[in-house]
Design brief:
By secondary structure, the protein is mostly helical. It has one domain (about 5-205): CDP-alcohol phosphotransferase transmembrane (TM) domain (Four Helix Bundle (Hemerythrin (Met), subunit A)). The protein contains eight helices and no strands. It has helices spanning about 5-10, 15-35, 40-65, 70-95, 100-105, 110-130, 140-155, 170-205. It starts with a helix and ends with a helix.
Length: about 210
């Protein structure tokens, strides 16, 4: 990444949008510790807050005309790191679950993990080459919305995980179906980014 691009990302960085993204990133390890320590209610609250701020911070940036290149980078980074953390924690939780169905399908969370890891690594490579990672398209936004929705449902009613599972427990098969649907949407979103990445690579290297 050259100096001009660094200056581009650092210009106009003091915005509400960027502050929210920073807070979301800082909350990730807090959420992880709370989840693994069994403080599920507080972990759920953090997930809900992160999800809600993800859908409102962009509107805040546009309303107050505080859109910045750094914000366009931090917002998806916060999403990716949050989803990677959720995927790892729920993979471990499903894998340790006594419900045979959930344990068998724990590998489904690896789809989220691999996809988000590829996104993060890909974005780093693109930035190092002077290219700009694509902003979320409609497929990405829908996939993210469904992902957060499914995670909240699991946190509320998932077997051995749900905060309110003592009142109502979602069957293991239903949990797996919800996760698989979210995984399929995630893969569709992943494919939707390929044309723009290919275009930028073609433009970048054809100039050389």
């Amino acid at each position: 990444m050259d100096k001009s691009m660094i200056n581009r990302y650092l210009s106009n960085w003091k915005t509400i949008h960027n502050f929210i993204s920073f807070v979301r990133i800082l909350l990730i390890p807090v959420f992880g510790v709370l989840f693994r320590e069994g403080h599920l209610v507080w972990a759920l609250i953090i997930v809900v807050i992160s999800g809600l701020t993800d859908f409102v911070d962009g509107k805040i940036a546009r309303k107050f005309n505080q859109i910045s290149d750094l914000g366009k980078l931090l917002d998806p980074l916060a999403d990716k790191l949050t989803q990677i953390t959720l995927a790892i924690l729920l993979f471990l939780e499903f894998n340790e679950c006594s419900d045979a169905t959930m344990k068998t399908f724990s590998w489904v969370f690896l789809i989220f993990l691999v996809k988000e890891a590829i996104f993060v690594v890909g974005a780093i490579i693109m930035l190092s080459l002077g290219m700009i990672p694509s902003a979320a398209e409609i497929y990405g936004k829908v996939a993210t919305f469904v992902f957060y929705g499914v995670m909240v449902v699991l946190f509320l009613f998932g077997p051995e995980v749900g905060v309110f599972s003592s009142f109502f427990t979602l069957p293991g098969v239903a949990c797996v179906v919800l996760v698989v649907i979210s995984a399929i949407l995630t893969l569709v979103a992943f494919v939707s980014y390929i044309p723009d990445v290919a275009r930028q690579c073609k433009e970048k290297f054809s100039k050389k």
